[in-house]
Design goal:
There is one protein chain. It contains 20 helices and 14 strands. It is of the alpha/beta class. The strands form 4 sheets. Strands 2-1-3-4-5 form a 5-stranded parallel sheet, with helices on both faces. A 5-stranded parallel sheet has the order 7-8-11-6-12.
């Protein structure tokens, strides 16, 4: 399909020149000399990319950019400006523009920037499709960040084996979701998946819950009970909060892992089971071992294949996707809801100490409070609204009388961000308020990075 380029500029001769150049490249073109006319075309015709002049009467480029991205958040917008101050260029990039070109510009450079961003947009569409396939396969697992993809890669590898797995991560990161994904991707997927919350069961009932008991084994044991390990035969048992397991039970669990058999409480018959064990914890078990709170031999039995789930603050690229996923899940209960751009920006900047569980809680609460179809900052908790001051904070840069090279300032900002983040591209991009892909592109433009794979 031929891409359509929308040119929004109040200078008719500039529109004519750009339109002619774009048509020579094989693109379809649309032209608007006023911001409102351009927004109408975006609303009705869904162009592939927009070339937008920053300085226009009636409605300036920043305002047009804001409304354009509200209509289509994924729309690539390239800013043209002869009035390119540092603050307006940075503001446009933070608002979501993919690039900017200063007038007078080299037409070949503009053609190259347009071509590159059309390719990026096409790849984003393909990623969306592949992500939807991935989401179906792994149910509630949603994300496209490198950290998320590394977890998915480990799941794919470990699911085809029968080794024990230890899933670690902060509370609310989705450890049980990972365990379910491993089970459903494994040859055991048709067998049972039996979860056990080790922290929720009283110590005196743990052994009976895990291994079962015979009639009369203790007061109140009026009949035989089948334990969780027995129920999980030919399938997977998920031992959540394994770090809370008492030492006495750790020894009995170790024996089951070593011998693949156990006895019911009060029983004498040895029962063999074929069970895959996945354990999870938010504790640092190495420190628990040092304190004598966790058996080292059990740790090594469980930790054959470790999978660590990064907290949400380390995979901010996934916040938008998770928000969409959660809203879709809540639709049957609360109807169609949308997150306003301002609220989504706060979501991306908040650290989420409770991770995905907290994100879901906040969205559900906001869905209840908001009367309309859109969730705004005023519907969010105070601790999230409180970071708005950071969002609104302006960069103070003095502009000397002799002027500055915008290109050189940008290069220095990129280098400073890399230095401050110790070479971590995702954190450097976050410091500048742009996406990682935009950060990489601009670094390559200034020959700062040799290739995208550097970190």
């Amino acid at each position: 399909m031929t891409s359509t380029i929308l040119i929004i500029d109040d200078e008719e001769h500039m529109c004519w020149a750009l339109q002619r150049a774009m048509q020579q490249e094989g693109y379809q073109t649309r032209v608007a000399n006023r911001g409102p006319d351009g927004l109408k075309i975006i609303q009705e015709e869904d162009p592939s990319l927009v070339v937008l002049d920053l300085k226009m009467p009636e409605m300036d480029g920043l305002e047009v950019l804001k409304h354009a991205l509200e209509i289509n958040p994924r729309l690539p917008v390239i800013i043209l400006t002869a009035h390119g101050t540092i603050e307006t260029a940075i503001e446009a990039m933070k608002m979501g523009a993919v690039d900017y070109i200063t007038k007078p510009f080299d037409l070949d450079e503009l053609k190259l920037v347009i071509k590159q961003n059309l390719v990026v947009a096409q790849l984003a569409t393909e990623v969306t499709f592949l992500r939807s396939q991935l989401t179906k396969e792994y149910n509630n697992m949603v994300g496209e960040s490198q950290a998320f993809q590394e977890v998915v890669h480990l799941i794919e590898r470990v699911s085809q084996t029968n080794v024990n797995v230890l899933v670690t991560g902060e509370s609310g990161t989705g450890k049980e979701v990972v365990a379910v994904a491993i089970h459903r991707s494994s040859p055991r997927k048709n067998g049972p998946f039996v979860p056990v919350n080790c922290a929720a069961l009283p110590e005196q009932l743990l052994e009976s819950e895990l291994f079962g008991h015979e009639k009369g084994a203790f007061t109140g044991a009026y009949s035989r009970k089948t334990g969780r390990f027995e129920l999980a035969d030919k399938g997977t048992i998920f031992l959540d909060e394994i770090g809370e397991l008492p030492l006495s039970m750790q020894a009995k669990l170790l024996r089951v892992l070593q011998e693949k058999s156990f006895e019911r409480v009060g029983g004498t018959k040895n029962l063999s089971v074929d069970v895959r064990v996945i354990a999870a914890t938010n504790r640092q078990l190495e420190k628990a071992i040092e304190k004598g709170e966790f058996r080292e031999d059990l740790y090594y039995r469980l930790n054959v294949m470790p999978i660590n789930i990064p907290p949400l603050r380390e995979r901010r690229e996934d916040v938008s996707l998770l928000v969409d996923h959660i809203i879709n899940k809540l639709k049957p209960t609360y109807g169609s809801k949308q997150i306003s751009p301002a609220a989504l920006e706060l979501f991306k900047r908040y650290d989420w100490p409770g991770n995905i569980r907290e994100l879901q809680n906040v969205i559900e609460r906001a869905a209840i409070i908001s009367r309309g179809e859109e969730i705004h900052p005023e519907h969010l908790p105070e601790e999230i609204r409180g970071i708005k001051a950071k969002v609104d904070k302006k960069i103070g840069i003095d502009l000397p009388e002799e002027g500055l090279s915008l290109e050189e300032v940008e290069k220095q900002l990129l280098l400073k961000a890399l230095e401050k983040s110790r070479g971590n591209q995702s954190k450097a991009a976050e410091l500048l308020g742009i996406t990682r892909s935009t950060f990489i592109y601009r670094c390559q433009k200034h020959s700062i990075l040799k290739n995208q794979s550097q970190s």
